[in-house]
Design goal:
The chain is of the alpha/beta class. 43% of the residues lie in helices and 27% in strands. The protein contains eleven helices and eight strands. A seven-stranded mixed beta sheet has the order 4-3-2-5-6-8-7. Strand 2, helix 4 and strand 3 form a beta-alpha-beta unit. Helix 2 crosses helix 9 and helix 9 packs antiparallel against helix 11. The longest helix is centred in the C-terminal third of the chain and has 15 residues.
Length: 247
């Protein structure tokens, strides 16, 4: 994660912790099926762990989980909400663990901030034989009318905004460059939340956090969404994209 991206998330760590979505159970079932011995006895390194959303879900399945996060603000949120889960400040470019110490290395909603040329060799270094590198992203659905028009408003204030994730071409280049096998999976799901929770989630996005008039944009979204959803409740749609990478 570059310096500019770190500072963006440092300023929205509270919103990130409060409102970012977690990940569907089917994702973890699929990861477990790809591990040589399933989840039993598995040692996991959750890199760029953020506020610990995936870390806590992993800890409910694996034998051991270590979270690694570069941002001090994000790490503080993680440790406050994840008692008993070890966490260290560090980077995917130089993982603070010994060679061959993990069965699974994970990047949840994070690998697009990482330099693959440095991070992939580091992940391969710490993985045991048969180990797996798992990358995944929640992609926001944009099929409903309110989601489509919100996307148009985001593009109007930030024309260079990008959705999270990596292109198929980037993943193919990664596989070819390191001689790896990649399996892709997709899991559609949704959650019902309040408008205020949705706005917190939106505020935590880097492409909104970086806006000079962020507060004005969020206030306009509040006005529009409460007009569309007078109950104060809406449904967010997601598609979680998972890449399982192995030698």
């Amino acid at each position: 994660m570059g310096e500019a991206e770190r500072s963006k998330f440092d300023t929205v760590a509270r919103q990130y912790a409060a409102a970012r979505p977690d990940y569907p159970a089917e994702l973890y079932d699929t990861i477990g099926a790809a591990l040589p011995h399933g989840w039993s006895g598995t040692a996991v390194l959750d890199v760029a762990a953020g506020t610990g959303i995936a870390t806590r879900q992993l800890a409910g399945r694996a034998a051991r989980v270590l979270a690694v996060e570069l941002s001090a603000a994000m790490l503080a949120e993680l440790t406050a909400s994840s008692p008993g889960i070890p966490a260290v400040q560090g980077s995917g470019n130089a993982l603070p663990v010994r060679t061959g110490s993990a069965d699974l290395v994970t990047y949840a909603q994070a690998f697009h901030w990482i330099d693959p040329a440095r991070a992939v060799p580091e992940a391969l270094r710490v993985l045991r034989p048969g180990g797996v590198l798992a990358l995944w992203w929640n992609r926001t659905g944009r099929s409903n009318q309110w989601e489509t028009t919100q996307e148009e408003r985001i593009a109007a204030v930030n024309p260079g905004w990008l959705r999270s994730g990596m292109t198929d071409e980037a993943m193919a280049a990664l596989a070819d460059g390191f001689g790896l096998k990649i399996a892709e999976h997709e899991f559609p799901w949704e959650r019902e939340i309040t408008v205020e929770e949705h706005l917190l989630n939106l505020t935590s996005k880097s492409y909104i956090a970086s806006l000079a008039d962020r507060d004005a944009f969020i206030e306009n979204e509040r006005r529009i969404l409460l007009g569309d959803f007078p109950s104060g409740v809406l449904t967010e749609q997601f598609s979680t994209i998972l890449y399982l990478i192995s030698r």
